[in-house]
Automatic annotation (TrEMBL):
HAMAP family: HslO (MF_00117). Belongs to the HSP33 family. Under oxidizing conditions two disulfide bonds are formed involving the reactive cysteines. Under reducing conditions zinc is bound to the reactive cysteines and the protein is inactive. Signal peptide: none annotated. Its main location: cytoplasm. This is 33 kDa chaperonin. The lineage of its organism: Bacteria, Bacillati, Bacillota, Bacilli, Lactobacillales. One of its GO terms (biological process) is protein refolding. InterPro entries: Heat_shock_Hsp33 (IPR000397), Heat_shock_Hsp33_C (IPR016154), Heat_shock_Hsp33_N (IPR016153). Disulfide bonds join C236-C238, C269-C272. It comes from Lactobacillus johnsonii. It comes from the Bacteria.
């Protein structure tokens, strides 16, 4: 089954919800970066959060970058999502696995540590806008909720979940973001909060075959309306052309060294691990163009 998200609204039109099944895209990231359990959970949750944020906030050709900058063992996690709901990302230390918490879950907060969550929105304006909040939990969903409240003035609830199998494959991945619109009453908020608290573990639900539509009904009620259904995927916009432009910005001495000493160059994309090889002749062309 292909990953997708749905946008839904409750019958009073005061609660907006986006739910997503992201198993394939988190699996793609896991394979490309060869992440171990704790790194998979951190990168996966950040990818799902970034995707939900872009679905909630972006338009047209906008993009946003989420930087989770904690002092825990996984290091920094960076993801970039576009308004077309493609996303790419990487984690500084992919090979982190930690002893499970008492409840058996991956200790995501420990893997992340303390630090900052930064979100940069590039909306085609001169200056991209960056909002920054301290990491308040490290479990990541709560951190996105805090960011939305503090930086975007959007009261929300966020749920993010990644289930890692013992062989490091991704068993399930998905999440939701609920936004309360200004017309929402206290009773409505209390009711929806009760429904979210009563939900079983999200991973368990996804492992049992729950769809984004099912999750929307469980949170908003069966009388909610599904407004849109959209595909989501892991996709990187790197290319050999892009890397030859990056090479062209190097000093001629550096390029000459690559040609004369290394007889070629291999560049690896940080976001997707794609390798780009440049032969001696290709590097000579780059050097000619750079001069
Ligand atoms: Zn790439």
């Amino acid at each position: 089954m292909k990953d997708y998200l749905v946008k839904a609204i409750d019958k009073t039109k005061n609660l907006r919800l986006i739910t997503v099944d992201a198993k394939d895209l988190v699996s793609e990231a896991q394979k490309r970066h060869d992440t171990w359990s704790a790194s998979s959970a951190v990168l996966g949750r950040t990818l799902i959060g970034g995707l939900l944020l872009s679905a909630a906030l972006l338009k047209y050709k906008d993009e946003l970058t989420v930087r989770l900058l904690g002092n825990g063992p996984v290091g920094a996690t960076i993801v970039t999502a576009k308004a077309d709901l493609t996303i790419k990302g990487y984690i500084q230390n992919p090979h982190i696995a930690l002893p499970p918490k008492k409840d058996g879950h991956i200790d995501v907060a420990k893997a992340v540590g303390k630090g900052w969550l930064e979100v940069t929105k590039d909306q085609g304006l001169k200056e991209p806008y960056t909002g920054q909040v301290p990491i308040v939990s490290g479990e990541i969903a709560e951190d996105f909720t805090y960011y939305l409240a503090k930086s975007e003035q959007i009261p929300s609830a966020v749920g993010l979940s990644v289930f890692v199998e013992p062989n490091n494959e991704i068993g399930a991945a998905g999440g939701f973001i609920l936004q309360a619109l200004p017309g929402a009453t206290d009773e409505q908020l209390a009711e929806v909060e009760k429904r979210i608290k009563a939900l079983p573990n999200l991973s368990t639900l996804f492992l049992d075959g729950m769809t984004p539509e099912n999750l929307a009904e469980r949170i908003l009620g069966t009388d909610c309306k599904i407004l849109a259904k959209e595909d989501v995927s892991f996709a990187c916009d790197c290319s050999k052309e892009k890397y030859s432009q990056i090479l062209a910005t190097l000093k001629p001495a550096q390029l000459k060294e690559m040609i004369e000493k290394d007889h070629g160059a291999e560049l690896v994309c940080r976001f997707c691990k794609e390798k780009y090889h440049f032969t001696e002749d290709e590097l000579k062309d780059v050097l000619k163009k750079a001069n």
